[in-house]
C-alpha cells in the first residue's frame, strides 16, 4: 500500500523508503529458522519517518521526524516489535502528542533526532546532527532531552565512538557558525568530562569521524555549509572545489594545538568503518566517494550516480606522509564492524551493497576480509532490500566474526519487513532466523543491539 504523504516526492513514498503511519505493538512474532538462544536483548534502529500531514518545504531524506523500530529477543523467541516516533519538539503539532521535556534544546534547525540510537552508561539516546539527544526507554517511549547535566552546550552528532576498552564515549559537534567543530569526552559513568574547540578551515559536514586506541580523527572534507543551496536543495551542504581535503589526528586527551593535519585527495566520506594504530601509522578505513560526487551531491540523493567504495588511508605520524589504497571496488554504505574492536585492528568489515544509476538503491549484505579485500555477499532475496547490518558478537566468541549480523530487510511481496539474523561466520549461507514483522520498516539509518542481562526485566 502506498500512503499519500502530501508534499513528498513519490520516490520517497513508495517501496522500501515509504514512511509508515501506525505505531504498532505486536507480540510473539513468527520466526522461520531458529533464533540463537545466546541473543538476549533489544535491536533498535532509527530513521526518518514524516508523520502523515502535509510536508512543508523541499523534501530531503535526511531530515524528517525520527522513528524507532525495535524487536525484543529472548530465549530463542521474538517477544515483541514496537515502532514509535520520537516525541521531539519538532514532532509536536504534527501529531496529537506532547513533546518530551528536558533541558532547553540548542538546535539551530528542527531537531528530529532521526539518525542513530545508542546505549551508553545505562541510557538509550536518539541522535541526529542538530540538537540535544533524546533519551528513550526500552519500550521506545521518549523520556526527554539529555544534556549530560548541563555540560553539553552544543548539538551532539549522530556518530559518537564508544571505546570498548574503557567504556568512555567520544563525540563531536559541528555547525555552520564558528566554532565549527567541538570535541567532547564522556566517561564510563555518563559524565561529560572534557570539552574542546577544534580549529578547522570552515563549516564542513562532519557526519562521521573515527577513533583509535590513543587518537581521534577529524574529517575536514569539501562538503561545506551553504544556506542558499539549502533553500533550493533542502539540505544546506554542497561540494566546494576550493575547500581542499584533510584529516586531523589528535591525541584523545589532547587539544586542537596537538592535532596534526594531513592533506588527502579530495573526496566525500559519510561513514567510516574503523581506524586503528599500526606502528607509527594510524590507519583509517571508510566508505569513500571520489570527487566524481561533486556534481551529484544533490537534493535528490536517490539520483546519486556514483557510489562509495571501501578505501584505506595510512597516516604516518613520524614521516608525516599519507598513503591511500582502494580495498575493494564494489559500492556500498553503512560500514560496520564488531563493536568490541572499535579503534583496534579489525580484520572483518560489513556493509550494505548499493546500486547507482538513474535511481540508487540498496541490496544485499556484504562482509569483507580486510586483509585481502575479498568480499562475501549475503543475498537477501530477489527484490528484497537490506538496511544497515549490526554485528552482535557471540557471548563466548573466540573469533572476530563469531556472532550474528542483524538487519531489517524489506520484502516488496508483502510490503512489510523481516528482521533477518545472519550467522556471520557462515555469511553466504541461509539466514539463521527470519522474524516476520507486521509492517514495513522504512529504509532508515543506524541502530544498535542492547544486551539485556539475565534477571533484568524483559
Ligand atoms: Fe550516519
Per-chain topology:
Blueprint: E1 25-27, E2 31-33, E3 41-48, E4 66-74, E5 77-85, E6 116-120, E7 123-127, E8 134-136, E9 142-145, E10 161-162, E11 169-174, E12 181-186, E13 192-198, E14 210-211, E15 215-220, E16 223-225, H1 227-233, E17 237-239, E18 246-251, E19 260-263, E20 268-278, E21 281-289, E22 309-316, E23 321-336, E24 348-355, E25 361-369, E26 375-378, E27 385-386, E28 390-393, E29 403-411, E30 416-423, E31 433-436, E32 447-451
Antiparallel strand pairs: 1-5, 2-31, 3-4, 3-32, 4-5, 6-7, 7-8, 8-9, 10-11, 11-12, 12-13, 14-15, 15-18, 16-17, 18-19, 20-21, 21-22, 22-23, 23-24, 24-25, 25-26, 27-29, 28-29, 29-30, 30-31
The structure holds fe (ii) ion.
Give an account of the 3D structure.
The protein is mainly β and 458 residues long. Helices cover 2% and strands 42% of the residues. It has 1 helix and 32 strands. The strands form 7 sheets. A 7-stranded antiparallel beta sheet has the order 20-21-22-23-24-25-26, with no helix packed on it. Strand 22 and strand 23 form a beta hairpin. The structure holds fe (ii) ion.
Overall body shape: globular
Overall pLDDT score: 93
Number of helical stretches of at least 4 residues: 1
Kindly estimate the percentage of residues that lie in beta strands according to DSSP. Answer: 35-45%
Q: Radius of gyration from the CA trace? A: 21 Å
Fraction of residues in H or I helices = under 10%
List keywords for this structure.
mainly beta; 6-stranded antiparallel sheet; binds fe (ii) ion; globular; 458 residues
